[in-house]
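Reviewers of the previous submission asked for a worked example of the structure-prediction workflow described in the proposal, so we include one complete record here. The input consisted solely of the amino acid sequence. No template or homolog information was supplied to the procedure at any stage.
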Amino acid sequence: MSDCKQQPDMKRREFLSNTVVAAGAVTVAPGVLLTTTEAKADGKGVSSNTRWGMLIDTNKCADGCTSCVSACDKENGIDLVKKPEGHDDAMWEQQRPQWIRKVKLRDTQSSVVSNLPLMCQHCEHPPCVDVCPTGASFKRADGIVMVDRHICIGCRYCMMACPYKARSFIHADVAEQVVNSPRGKGCVESCNLCAHRLDAGQGNTACAEACAKDGHNAIVFGDLKDPNSAVSKALKSQPSRQLREDLMLNTGVRYTNV
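From that input alone, the workflow returned the following structure tokens.
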């Protein structure tokens, strides 16, 4: 009798499994879509043998240029977010999502002003991860700091803990978005070094690619643990520094000429 009861269940599981594999998605309940995605194109997980990072040369970062910002916005669907009707301009400027923003830094001793893109610094010891009560903020084995939107409760502790103000909170429903970067109301988000690109086998971020396309080449991206990578060679050839070195976070993003 028990065998007869189990047989339909097994067939149902097999049917759902085959449907998911074949179609990549299956509706399990009204309004609920179950999807499957591969972590990497080669089927392997990320490894601590790699640490992704970048070097940004502020001398090459052109004043007024926002190519890196525009490329990031388009890559992650942030450009699809529009200011809500009737929303105050000043409030929108504070609340709109920004994964990269251009800033000016002035040296208090020399008064030299530097232009630079500022994003998540992908710290080895990320404060955002330390304060997250659910584990939604986490660091991958390859050094990329990310947010798991499935378990983010929107407490925004991570935003308060980040010394770079690199995270944004989604205040409103997201009507339009891109597949590679799902976004949703009530979650925190930030630069993830285009993890979807890296997991698919591509070796560059959208911001670095756009900067090179414009001929500035201010952003060099790659594997910090590979001595033969472009970023490792660039770091060896010139002095660089972290922003807020005093915090000893060992950031994955470094700057030169600042």
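The chain has two domains: 2-35, 52-256. We consider this example representative of the routine output the project will generate in years two and three.
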